[in-house]
Amino acid sequence: MKVYFLGTGTSQGIPVIGSDHPVCHSQDQKDKRLRVSIWVEWDNNSFVIDCGPDFRQQMLTSGCSKIDAILFTHEHSDHTTGLDDIRPFFFKQGNIPIYGHERVLKNLKKRFDYIFETENKYPGSPGVFPIEVENNVLIESHSKKIIPINAMHGDLQVFGYRFDNFAYLTDVKTIETTEINKLKNLDVLVINALREDAHNTHFNLQEALGFINIVQPKKAYLTHISHTFGFHEEIQKKLPENVFLAYDNLIINI
């Protein structure tokens, strides 16, 4: 299974528009971060988790030419705004399955009503096949049994997803023990770590490392990074030997 980090930045991306912060002027490509998303491939199957406002650019850069499904973690714009850009995939493949919490699907239908339209549909618009994700219910698709992981992003419920011995969680602030138990025996865990300072709705570095220590994956990658965290290379020096700061266009094989 191949995991491609399409984006590893927080909601504003890095560089932030108009910012004079030193990280926003870094010449290191690892400090340039699009909005957070990954592409997971196995046996010619292709799933994307979240499609934010950088989706088109991410698809072109990564060379992704097929999407069998999109899994949504939650409805915030940095995770969903690129939905219209599934059009090239739709024109080749037909309706694209999208998975999300019932609340998320309702939100997307309200914001992208023309995509969900079934009668008098505008011929240039894409189409989707919405599938509700429920906690404790496996997603069985394309030879995989994908486990939803329920967590909280402040007061908002979010889903992470486990594929075999790989799990991806972002925008997490709290998570119940019953859900943590679904993350045992991982080869790789991806988890958000916004910055070093505390935040109301996201893990900071200390919380993310504490979570990694509980889950005990063989390797962990940090994502959803803010410019206020600091420079990539300086952050990496602070991390334990099995914890890595993810960056855009990083590819890992599991």
UniProtKB/TrEMBL annotation:
- Which intervals hold domain Metallo-beta-lactamase? 35-224
Concerning InterPro entries, the annotation shows: Metallo-B-lactamas, RibonucZ/Hydroxyglut_hydro
A Pfam family reported for this protein in Swiss-Prot or TrEMBL: Lactamase_B_2
Which Gene3D superfamilies does the entry mention? Answer: Ribonuclease Z/Hydroxyacylglutathione hydrolase-like (3.60.15.10)
Which superkingdom does the taxonomy of this entry point to? Answer: Bacteria
What name appears for this protein in its UniProt entry?
Answer: Phosphoribosyl 1,2-cyclic phosphate phosphodiesterase
Q: Native species of this protein?
A: Flavobacterium swingsii
